[in-house]
Amino acid sequence: MRAILTAVALTMLTVGGAAAEPLTRPARSHQAVQPVAVLVERDGDRWTVEYLLNEDAPVWFFQRSALLRVGRTPWRPDWWSVETPGVILDRQGRKDVLRTADGGPVPRRVRITMHPREGDLEADYDPALMFSDGAVALYSGQFDVAPLASVEQARALPLDLNGIDLPGGPAEVTWRDRGGPVLFKGERLEQVTAIDADTYVLFGEARTREGAGVTTVIDPGLPVWLGEQLGGFTPLVMDYYASRLGPQAGPTPTLMVSWTGPTESLSSMGGSVLPGLISMNFEGEGVLDPEPAALARARWFIGHESAHFWLGSNGLKYEFARDAWITEGGADLMAVRAISAIDPTYDARTELQREVDDCVRLAAGGPVASAGERGDNRAYYACGAVWSLALEGAWREREGGDFLDVIADFQRRNADDGVLTRDEWLETLTGASRDPSLRIGIERMLDIGTGDPVGEIARLFDRTGVAFRIEAGRIVLI
Questions:
Q1: Taking Cα atoms as reference points, which of 66, 27, 17, 63 lies closest to residue 372?
Q2: I want to staple 31 with a disulfide (CB 3.0 to 4.6 A). Which of 169, 170, 179, 472 is the partner?
Q3: 443 contacts 463 by C-beta, under 8 angstroms
Q4: CA 348 – CA 451 distance, rounded (Å)
Q5: pLDDT, tens digit, 9 for 90 and up, residues 137-189
Q6: Beta strands across the sheet bearing 59-62
Q7: How far is Cα 55 from Cα 239, in angstroms, rounded to an integer?
Q8: Global pTM?
């Protein structure tokens, strides 16, 4: 997902906390007999995408239309230029669309010039990962489009398309680089065509390296210490999760890491998880050297992204985008528990205190379930981690163990469909705590909002055995 990159000010340094799963996933729709065909091609410095649409429609909308995190603006209208006369690419409601100036059907063949660049999206995978040696990885899902009857229909589309039946289906995309083969799911191929690939396709001469349980593609400009951590610590975390939750599904995963550069006064880590792929991006002078704070954040970041192979896009999934707190907050707590088990010197309390403080701050801004609409996606992570901590406490008092044991139980009970719903999560809390009122409090924070998040969380912790005290109106973990 890359899904989020939240900035936290530390004097002149900002530290990015990443996430992995997009909060808006592709709509599940009927696949047309002949899908939309797309050719994505690089010819030197020129990038083009050519659409061969499969029906006449006045509007085609892009299912992946997340905003840029900084500025909350759409990215396609600035990064893509339509060459086909009479066709407009702009924003209508919550979606980017292709439409005609005169309101007639969009031509069946549409050609676009692309200008790939770095850019964090809110709750979705970045369109491109840029490498310092000129290699570029493009996210496959950004090219999917679906037809609509009018601009008004586009404006009425919700942010979350889960459960909405739409015409068409995933596009059949062909990737081609006139300069050489592309890297697709670990293989070098002269050209590749796929439907619903859900991956990054790499253009350029990036070196791959086989490791213990992970194949890595690391930007040559990445600071050496970070490369060593990624190559060495990622297998340890993956092995720990596998020992507790069983092996991750599918082939050996690939770790793809890009480096934006040593931007002044910045320390940024972003990432996401796709089937068989962990993508990460680092930026800023704050990660040039292995300072203790940077090392701790890098390890936590690896732990969070790796957790999504079991809880998130590669494992148990949420039902609706508003339920992303289940997977994102859960992955946060999983990372804390995994790193604590691997490194006894790790300061878990500081990380969990950050989750509590952020949840209090963000929950005061409105209902957590609709945080994505406000651009407050960090609320899904922080409050999800706080609620997961409470569930862990209740589970420990009744069953013993930690949050990984809770996840293992979810796996057993949701093996058929792989979906962990909000009701199932909250019912587990009620069963472990034997206190139905705790569910009511969380649902109030989710759906209505609260003017007293400190009081809500304090009551939740008090009833589930999470140790804390109140200092000057602040919840302090002990």
A1: 66
A2: 169
A3: no
A4: 28
A5: 999 999 999 999 999 999 999 988 877 877 778 999 999 999 999 999 888 99
A6: 87-92, 95-100, 59-62, 145-148
A7: 48
A8: 0.85
